[in-house]
Write a structure and sequence with these properties.
3-stranded antiparallel β-sheet; elongated; single chain; alpha+beta; 4-stranded antiparallel β-sheet
Length: 357
């Protein structure tokens, strides 16, 4: 019997339409334009992206899994394949790396959901939570761990990795959603990412967080009106004048700088002396601190320069210990900056006191 010629996968729609063959354990659809990339479809309809390659200096062909469709879409699979092929050209062997990680994971006895997510956190800190990943920022991991400790661990932490069901994840998400829709989505995302990590490293066969439903994320378009901005600015300019509000001078300065530069709260909080050129009136935020991982240069107005000078003067003037270099050091640990949450809490208190939603 002649071999069946399957159509090439050229779009995400084609990947979605790829069908299993009930007579065969699995079929493989090749992806047009990307050498070695294919979509494997099992008899029960599961779809997995795989990549065939030959390590440099070897004649043996190897295969690595890039993720499960639709969690990993067509464009992401092609991008991951190109990055992986580039790593192979540089002498790496992704399949061997995954095999080593698999052995290490098994040696840690990842038997429960809590074990798995702890392993995911450890891998994410090194950029090994996915193929050709980059290390997650400490602030991101801290936020993810907060959702894990508060919501996931108490309810699902003791469940065996292989036994966790989609219904259990959905019930958890639904329970959180009634109070905090955003927290529900982010909690689901932690579970989903941890199980994607487990699937790639072959310590789990399925992702129970896949296809769970959450409230659609609504983009916020709310901005302060001029009168509201004046009220907020007046308090931040002189926090001692607000007798009905607990606002520290450092946080007030951070809020002023956020208003003057329109930079992200986390970037303002982490401002360091090494990033500032006062003579040139420039603030250079390194890629390690920006959302898109690219260096960002911010021109500074005279008011912004004054706010930064005041912040550094306040940071070093009230303490006798060695300056950390941060414009807004944490009162708990002077070697670290204040957190983004400090600004959020302050803004919430300020808004309540001054009638600003």
């Amino acid at each position: 019997m002649a071999a069946t010629v399957l159509p090439l996968i050229k779009t995400d729609a084609a990947a979605r339409a790829a069908k299993p063959d009930p007579e065969r354990r699995q079929v493989e659809y090749r992806v047009a334009g990307t050498r070695g990339l294919a979509l494997r479809v099992t008899r029960d309809g599961k779809k997995v992206w795989t990549l065939r390659y030959r390590p440099r200096g070897s004649s043996d062909q190897r295969r690595v899994t890039l993720g499960v469709y639709p969690e990993v879409g067509f464009a992401d699979a092609r991008s991951a394949a190109q990055v992986t092929l580039g790593a192979v050209a540089g002498g790496e062997d992704p399949a061997q790396t995954l095999a080593d990680a698999k052995v290490a994971a098994r040696s840690r006895k990842l038997t429960t959901v809590a074990d798995l997510i702890e392993a995911y956190f450890e891998a994410a800190a090194k950029g090994k939570h996915r193929l050709n990943g980059r290390p997650k920022r400490a602030s991101t991991l801290s936020e993810e761990r907060r959702y894990f400790d508060r919501h996931i661990k108490p309810r699902l932490g003791a469940r065996p990795v292989a036994d966790l069901t989609r219904q259990e994840v959905q019930r958890l998400v639904d329970d959180i959603e009634g109070k905090a829709p955003g927290a529900a989505r982010l909690t689901r995302n932690v579970i989903r990412q941890a199980y994607n990590f487990a699937i790639v490293h072959e310590t789990a066969d399925k992702n129970p967080a896949a296809r769970t439903s959450v409230v659609k994320w609504k983009a916020r378009e709310r901005v302060l009106a001029d009168d509201e901005l004046r009220r907020v600015w007046a308090v931040c300019l002189d926090p001692d004048s607000a007798t009905d509000l607990d606002l520290s001078p450092g946080v007030a300065l951070a809020l002023r700088l956020a208003m003057l530069t329109l930079q992200r709260g986390s970037e303002v909080c982490g401002l360091h002396a090494a990033e500032i050129d006062l003579a040139g009136k420039l603030w250079t935020i390194p890629g390690t601190r920006t959302k898109n991982h690219r260096t960002h240069v911010v021109p500074l107005s005279a008011a912004a320069v004054d706010a930064i000078k005041d912040a550094f003067e306040l940071a070093v003037g009230r303490r006798a210990d060695k300056p950390s270099g941060y414009a807004f050091p944490s009162p708990r640990d002077r070697k670290k900056p204040i957190t983004r949450r400090a600004l959020s809490r302050a803004m919430k208190r300020l808004g309540a006191a001054k009638g600003v939603d």
